[in-house]
């Protein structure tokens, strides 16, 4: 049993599940053992289309997947409105949970999920790929370098995309349906912006969050475009922009007293097995303002697995430690998820209150 990889059941056949099922197959310590859909034919088609092992079990209900004693962990790519029910049931069945984000519709729902996971001794992690990329750890080393970067002053983050190839997006996609993913662009893309800001601040929650005017809501009241500013008691500030209405952009700019970090593909790197970022430190204009000195430095980071494979490998290591060594679930991941959820809640509350500042209480 100690040598057996973590056996995943995939709960739902959303588009993102194809990417993560591939990641599970690439990870050295994980495998796909089952896939479930509300349609057994859809589950079978998914297994074939994604090259799952021939012995993969096919289920026509989520309950059947959860009742399988040979499943160690569940990957859950369901719409956010379904997370509370199925995440709690997953935990009650003693199965570890890798779930798509946002984890819940609000922090209250999140706390119910986290409580079920804690009571049943199972690991929970949200599926934010980029935080597991080795590049992310290298960038954090720069932010922590007091000589090169100094003290963090401000962070600006952006994740926007326009679904050019999907003209029916604003009519059919779950991300714009209030009964499925009610947070819209804030939950889908804003989660990344908020997470990147918290990552840069060592997950220190801001004091206040203010949604900026000029956002766009659909006729059903779902956020299609949103901007917000965040402020900390020590004077740090941040902004983020998330949108379904602007060209694909995934940027982080973190500015310190001495240095600046730039990354332009933080959500999904331009290349799968190599990613880069740019730093400047103690730069100034040359005499007569003819250029910069020193010039920015570009840093490339090669990887052995795509970032989603790194995520699965890290999650599976935690599960194996619990299963084989009696370790406790790592509380870092639900804490980080909850803080992200709290900031999303504050942005949504600010929008609902006419763009008033909202104070965060952790």
TrEMBL record:
Q: Which Pfam families match?
A: GFO_IDH_MocA, GFO_IDH_MocA_C3
Positions of the GFO/IDH/MocA-like oxidoreductase domain: 138-261
Q: Which Gene3D superfamilies match?
A: Dihydrodipicolinate Reductase, domain 2, NAD(P)-binding Rossmann-like Domain
One example GO MF annotation = nucleotide binding
Q: Which residues form the Gfo/Idh/MocA-like oxidoreductase N-terminal domain?
A: 6-125
**Similarity comment:** Belongs to the Gfo/Idh/MocA family.
Write down the PANTHER family for this protein, in alphabetical order: GFO_IDH_MOCA-LIKE OXIDOREDUCTASE N-TERMINAL DOMAIN-CONTAINING PROTEIN, PTHR46368
Q: What name does UniProt use for this protein? A: Gfo/Idh/MocA-like oxidoreductase N-terminal domain-containing protein
Which species is this UniProt entry from?
Hibiscus trionum
């Amino acid at each position: 049993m100690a040598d057996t990889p973590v056996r995943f059941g995939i709960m739902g056949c959303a588009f993102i599940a194809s990417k993560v099922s591939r990641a599970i197959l690439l990870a050295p310590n994980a495998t796909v053992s089952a896939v479930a859909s509300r349609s057994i034919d859809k589950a079978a088609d998914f297994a074939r289309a994604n090259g799952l092992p021939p012995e993969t079990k096919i289920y026509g209900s989520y309950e059947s997947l959860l009742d399988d004693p040979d499943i160690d962990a569940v990957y859950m790519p369901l719409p956010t409105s379904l997370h509370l029910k199925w995440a709690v049931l997953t935990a009650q069945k003693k199965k570890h949970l890798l779930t798509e984000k946002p984890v819940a519709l609000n922090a209250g729902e999140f706390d119910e999920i986290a409580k079920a996971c804690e009571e049943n001794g199972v690991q929970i992690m949200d599926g934010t790929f980029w935080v597991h990329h080795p590049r992310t750890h290298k960038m954090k080393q720069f932010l922590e370098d007091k000589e090169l970067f100094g003290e963090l002053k401000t962070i600006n983050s952006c994740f926007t995309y326009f679904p050019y190839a999907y003209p029916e997006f604003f009519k059919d996609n779950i991300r714009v349906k209030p009964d499925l993913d009610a947070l819209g662009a804030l939950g889908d893309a804003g989660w990344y912006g908020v997470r990147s800001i918290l990552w840069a601040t060592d997950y220190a929650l801001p004091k206040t969050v203010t949604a900026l005017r000029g956002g766009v809501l659909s006729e059903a009241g779902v956020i299609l475009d949103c901007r917000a500013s965040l402020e900390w008691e020590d004077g740090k500030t941040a902004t983020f922009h998330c949108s379904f209405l602007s060209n694909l952009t995934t940027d982080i700019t973190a500015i310190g007293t001495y240095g600046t970090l730039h990354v332009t593909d933080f959500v999904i790197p331009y290349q799968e097995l190599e990613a880069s970022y740019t730093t400047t430190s103690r730069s100034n204009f040359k005499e007569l303002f003819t250029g910069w000195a020193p010039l920015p430095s570009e840093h490339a980071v090669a990887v052995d697995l795509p970032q989603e494979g790194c995520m699965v490998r890290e999650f599976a290591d935690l599960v194996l430690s619990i299963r084989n060594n009696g370790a406790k679930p790592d509380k870092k991941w639900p804490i980080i998820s909850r803080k992200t959820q709290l900031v999303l809640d504050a942005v949504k509350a600010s929008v609902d209150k006419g763009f008033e500042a909202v104070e965060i209480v952790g």
